[in-house]
Design brief:
The protein is an all-alpha fold. It is 76% helix and 0% strand.
């Protein structure tokens, strides 16, 4: 009874919000509103940044949930397990190689990884893919090349560090968690509403099952994307960037500063190289590499999604492992190359 009342209230709220949107879209005169009320510039900036993050991420989220749905409907558990090496340490290498040819942005990677784990991919192998795929794919390589065409060391360093460090991250996760289940049980799954359409007894053709699954997962992921985008836009609007620049002069502190900056900005990995290039005069190449490697592996919007679907302890350990591994890796690369 409580569940049906909750569902009805959600539907009523949803319909009310749609009605409000249609009213404002058809009848709201922005010029009159602007003359009567003065909106602070910070709020306008916040609105612009928030919308830009959401609009930029939605196509990739759609790609991610569609790929996730194809995996759910067309790929069996036996197929996934067949192509994974039995040696759990060796298994991290094909995951990193798969990331090099799979064009998935970090905005789309969480639903894909979640589905692969449910299909039988080992936890640490899936998170190798999560860490490297948003960086190693050809689109990101091309954008990095054009952003740093006068400094190919940045391109080479980004690709090499992503490939090597993702495998290190995976091995550490395997040592810490082995094959344990780190999924968080949601309330929908407890009451039986979280089942995948393809797993229900209802006979549905595969195309319909893919569409049903993609739509469910898109709205499930979408709310966490919006929360993450809002937090990221708040930091972008109100964070004083001059403080970051002032901290960027030290070769040991500057990578940490840029890693924090990448986490807060939550940029798409296919566009972050151009933002990093704009900091070229203020930060050392090692700090720029830290920005370019850390951000796609871990940012605010991805973190919100990870906390939604994985156990809190696991996500916190994953964040710590990624932070330490990337920082140490960048320092080593910086000492050898620059």
């Amino acid at each position: 009874m409580k569940t049906s009342l909750l569902n009805q209230s959600k539907e009523i709220i949803g319909l009310a919000l749609v009605a409000v949107f249609i009213y404002f879209f058809l009848f709201w005169d922005y010029e009159i509103f602007q003359r009567q009320f003065t909106i602070p510039q910070n709020l306008l900036n916040l609105n612009t940044i928030f919308l830009s993050i959401v609009i930029e991420a939605i196509p990739f989220i759609l790609l991610g949930v569609f790929v996730s749905s194809l995996i759910q409907v067309f790929v069996s558990e036996e197929t996934v397990q067949k192509y994974i090496p039995k040696n759990m340490i060796v298994a991290v290498l094909p995951a990193a190689l798969l990331g090099a040819i799979f064009p998935v942005c970090e905005c789309a990677i969480v639903p894909v990884v979640r589905r692969l784990i449910k299909k039988g991919m080992p936890l640490h192998v899936a998170f190798v893919f999560l860490a490297c795929a948003p960086i190693l794919n050809p689109v990101v390589a091309a954008s990095t090349y054009f952003a740093f065409r006068n400094n190919t060391d940045i391109l080479i360093g980004r690709m090499a560090l992503a490939f090597l460090l993702s495998m290190v991250i995976g091995l550490i996760l395997y040592i810490l968690f082995k094959q344990s289940n780190q999924f968080k049980v949601t309330s929908e799954e407890l009451i039986g509403r979280g089942a995948d359409p393809s797993e229900t007894p209802m006979k549905v053709n595969r195309l319909k099952a893919t569409i049903y699954h993609a739509s469910d997962e898109f709205f499930d992921m979408g709310k966490y994307l919006i929360i993450g985008a809002l937090i990221a836009s708040l930091f972008q609007t109100f964070l004083d960037r001059s403080i970051l620049v002032s901290l960027g002069s030290n070769e040991f502190s500057s990578p940490i500063v840029m890693m924090a900056f990448a986490f807060l900005l939550s940029l798409c990995s296919e566009a972050d190289a151009f933002v990093a290039a704009s900091f070229g005069s203020a930060f050392a190449p090692g700090a720029l590499l830290a920005f370019l490697v850390y951000g796609p592996m871990l940012d605010l919007k991805n973190t919100v999604m990870l906390f939604a679907y994985f156990k809190t302890k696991f996500v916190l350990v994953f964040m710590l492992v990624v932070t330490v591994v990337v920082y140490v890796g960048v320092l080593i690369y910086q000492a050898i190359v620059f």
